[in-house]
Amino acid sequence: MGRTVVQITLIGLLLALASTLPNKDDWDIYSFHINSTVTSRYATTVITSRVANRMNESKEIEFHVRIPKNAFISKFRMFIDGQVYDGVVKAKEQAQQQYTEAVSRGESAGLVSSVGRTLEEFKTSVTVAAHKKVTFELTYEELMKRTHGKYELQIHARPMQPVRDFKVDVHIHEEAGISFIDVKGGLSTKALANAITKTHADKQAWVYFYPTVDQQKMCDSCGDQGMNGDLVIVYDVNRDNGLGHIKKSDGYFVHHFAPSDLPRIPKNVVFVIDQSGSMHGRKIEQTRIALVHILNDLAEDDYFGLITFDGNIFHWKQELVQANSKNLESAKNFARNIQDRGSTDINEAVLQGARMLNEHNREGSASILILLTDGDPTSGVTNLEKIQSNVRQAIAGKFPLYCLGFGFDVDFNFLEKMSLQNNGVARRIYEDSDADLQLKGFYEEVATPLLTDVTMIYVGGTNLTQTNFSHYYNGSEIVVAGEITDNNIETFTPQVVAISSNRRIIFSNPNETVESTGTVSDDHIQRVWAYLTVKQLLDKELQLSGPEKDEVKKEALELSLKYSFVTPLTSMVVTKPPGENTDVLHKPKEGETSQRRQFTGVRAKPVSGRGMLKFHHAPVKPPRFRGAVQKNARVPKLRVKSLDPSSHFPQATHAPAPPVPVSTVLPTTINVPWPTDVPLLHRFLINTKNQTVPLCFDVSGSLQLKLLHHPSEELFVNGELDSVVNGGFNSIFIHFQTDHHVEIDSRGVTVREGQTVAHHTGQDTITAGSVTVVVHNNKIHVTAGKMRLVILVHEKNGNKFLWPVLRKHRSADDSEGLLAVKPAVYEVVQQVPVTKLKIKNQETDVTSDSATDYSSDPPVTKNCWLMSADSALQRPLADFSVAQL
Ligand SMILES: *[C@@H]1O[C@H](CO)[C@@H](O)[C@H](O)[C@H]1NC(C)=O
Ligand SMILES: *[C@@H]1O[C@H](CO)[C@@H](O)[C@H](O)[C@H]1NC(C)=O
Ligand SMILES: *[C@@H]1O[C@H](CO)[C@@H](O)[C@H](O)[C@H]1NC(C)=O
Ligand SMILES: *[C@@H]1O[C@H](CO)[C@@H](O)[C@H](O)[C@H]1NC(C)=O
Ligand SMILES: *[C@@H]1O[C@H](CO)[C@@H](O)[C@H](O)[C@H]1NC(C)=O
Ligand SMILES: *[C@@H]1O[C@H](CO)[C@@H](O)[C@H](O)[C@H]1NC(C)=O
Ligand SMILES: *[C@@H]1O[C@H](CO)[C@@H](O)[C@H](O)[C@H]1NC(C)=O
């Protein structure tokens, strides 16, 4: 019966949402052009969208596009009724201030947010009078990065409706000559094949994509709303295998260096693989698969090592061994048998890896350390700065460290900083069906070292971007830009010194022919220099602290402003016709793709989103189920677990539910049949400090519980136990600082910031101030200040319920709640006739029982000592109840 009530309210909500959807015929995008010009691997793309308001009243019209994460927006303008409204790039703080004022006047902010692996979303809107038109024009710039021997220009086309005049024009001009060009991506399919024209001349190439309205509905990811997909232009340039290609213009130069006719250098590689409990399921499986592939790719003169770690370190072999077939077979066996377990001791694992490489000093080889992890350090040294300084000391600049962060629970910032400090890079591995291919793809980028200790020297050059590189890999490219002192081309002499196998080689071109773009004033190369300099300063800033950091930040900010780049330090302020909101657009920070992104707010007004509607007015609150609750509903027994807050990362797992039966993965667990006819009880688990069997207790009814209260951080997390569906919680509320509220139930997420409300049902990301919510598969990641919480959405017999897992929070004396319960310390003082445990000098009768640990995904069943809630919690259960979520 309770179920029926729920469904009715749900439909009510859907109706309420539907009524705010804009009428599809209100406005018409009659023209949509994407024009991308690539010169010397620097792409400048202009998106122009022309929209008409067909109604006889004014309408809010939205501009909503996706651009590559790597790009900087450099220009945005709107043309309305003969007027131009230019976006202005300002220092973020300054824009923020302006925005805050705008908010107090009841105005809204626009956003740039990251979507998926490679794209960011740009959104703004403007009110257009009856029968008037608006033109939106967005420009972004990016330096293409060569990987796997090619450049990829990604163009995302999603105009949100079929457009009569839809065009993508790409023009590539490379002085070195274009060796090949291909068109790929989801839009380059059969149905659209004849809409694509590709022309390839020696130094230039053109790609035109002009699909008809009918074709725009035909591609795989397209429909009535038109196209939604990528066009990826893949190309490479000819290589002379010497010094490479140098282009100069207006006193600036850019040097592309990518020789490929060199012998490969044998490598020494150590893989440090996280096998902590959180890797459980598909992640560890994909890691095994990728490792076996990677091992297969090692060359016979490579040496390698394999370390797996959780709270302990496991060496396949203590020393590096040669990659001969015998060793590889044995290593593959080891890899196939990696099991997830335990906590995460990143410090010791990386130090061991560094030790192995340091002990294996081989002339004429290239050493590489690769760390794969999916979580924060939880055992051994857990202080992030301490780990970083230990690692830096152990590596001492001798070889690069590459960090691969698997999934959303990693502290990517930490990994990125650690890699950058050791001449490497960090990569995110997305938890998806192709994670093994991502791992393999990354490995292939570093699989073939051709040079080590590369020093790029430019006599007569100044203000150079990075000039020293520890390794150069086949298929990649080194790019250096700078100024030519006094624009004196006579004295400008580029040279590259590097080690190839055992030889020191010098690349130079005695009869230098530096290509010059002539006398026409052209700031193109200067922009390349600025782009690269800003990117590198942002990386540098990440590694520094104190006044040095401020200095670098200041420099990056000045350049961003000078070249009008929207970087993590700047914002674009979009002014609109009088009486309208000012939008402030922020770029999410590098490496903070989805967890710590910031932008200043969510829109307060219903936004016409062509079926993309995400936000609605504040007073609409999702219905709550309390009225539908039956106190004694006969619902199966529930088991819930409380976490150890003293460790940042409980051993909870959070992989997507794999099809692996739990009992085959964890031989110590037992499967308990799901009881079908017991009163509704929620069973909680309490971890123990040094015993093997956890405690458990039951709570009946649909209590509202205090999960985590942290008054000094202004953080409050409450949950309501479900009494309709047979799981953990039906809703979880998070209140952060005075005006940030997140409400989560199994159907979606609602974020409030002041009077602004964003409701959210898909796989997506929303941010309000320092609160970020990422919905990814069956997980909802919430970051609020220093707290990271993952809410697992479990499904049992078709019913969904929520299960909170605390990943990180600042432990403080004033933290309270079920998630803050300390692990139990107990002793078994008597076995027969009844088992008695002694907890804090109090003896309690217990029975041996079992509980499902829902902090695991999939849940696992554990043995536990069952006792009353009050004994288990060492205080009355009533202390944990709250009157209001
Ligand atoms: C594309 O942009 C380039 C450079 O701004 C310009 O020369 C060209 O005319 C544009 N092409 C189209 C089709 O708009
Ligand atoms: C707008 O159109 C409606 C019907 O299409 C009409 O009733 C109304 O008078 C029009 N309003 C104006 C301002 O023209
Ligand atoms: C480097 O890559 C090129 C093609 O991209 C290939 O022809 C060459 O053999 C590679 N070099 C080595 C040492 O693998
Ligand atoms: C470039 O270098 C010169 C000195 O060599 C310095 O005066 C100037 O400020 C630098 N320009 C930038 C933009 O850093
Ligand atoms: C680059 O390497 C050269 C030679 O190895 C060294 O002299 C120079 O100091 C390095 N420069 C930087 C900026 O690290
Ligand atoms: C440099 O010039 C000399 C003669 O002028 C020529 O023989 C040689 O091939 C040239 N070298 C390069 C790398 O162009
Ligand atoms: C658990 O820890 C307590 C206090 O730290 C200690 O007294 C007890 O002996 C330990 N028990 C086991 C089994 O290690």
TrEMBL record:
<protein>
    <recommendedName>
        <fullName>Inter-alpha-trypsin inhibitor heavy chain H3-like</fullName>
    </recommendedName>
</protein>
<keyword id="KW-0722">Serine protease inhibitor</keyword>
<feature type="signal peptide">
    <location>
        <begin position="1"/>
        <end position="20"/>
    </location>
</feature>
<keyword id="KW-0964">Secreted</keyword>
<dbReference type="Pfam" id="PF08487">
    <property type="entry name" value="VIT"/>
</dbReference>
<keyword id="KW-0732">Signal</keyword>
<feature type="domain" description="VWFA">
    <location>
        <begin position="268"/>
        <end position="446"/>
    </location>
</feature>
<dbReference type="InterPro" id="IPR050934">
    <property type="entry name" value="ITIH"/>
</dbReference>
<dbReference type="InterPro" id="IPR002035">
    <property type="entry name" value="VWF_A"/>
</dbReference>
<dbReference type="Pfam" id="PF00092">
    <property type="entry name" value="VWA"/>
</dbReference>
<feature type="compositionally biased region" description="Basic and acidic residues">
    <location>
        <begin position="583"/>
        <end position="595"/>
    </location>
</feature>
<dbReference type="GO" id="GO:0005576">
    <property type="term" value="C:extracellular region"/>
</dbReference>
<keyword id="KW-0646">Protease inhibitor</keyword>
<dbReference type="InterPro" id="IPR013694">
    <property type="entry name" value="VIT"/>
</dbReference>
<dbReference type="GO" id="GO:0004867">
    <property type="term" value="F:serine-type endopeptidase inhibitor activity"/>
</dbReference>
<feature type="domain" description="VIT">
    <location>
        <begin position="13"/>
        <end position="142"/>
    </location>
</feature>
<comment type="similarity">
    <text>Belongs to the ITIH family.</text>
</comment>
<keyword id="KW-0325">Glycoprotein</keyword>
<dbReference type="InterPro" id="IPR036465">
    <property type="entry name" value="vWFA_dom_sf"/>
</dbReference>
<feature type="region of interest" description="Disordered">
    <location>
        <begin position="576"/>
        <end position="598"/>
    </location>
</feature>
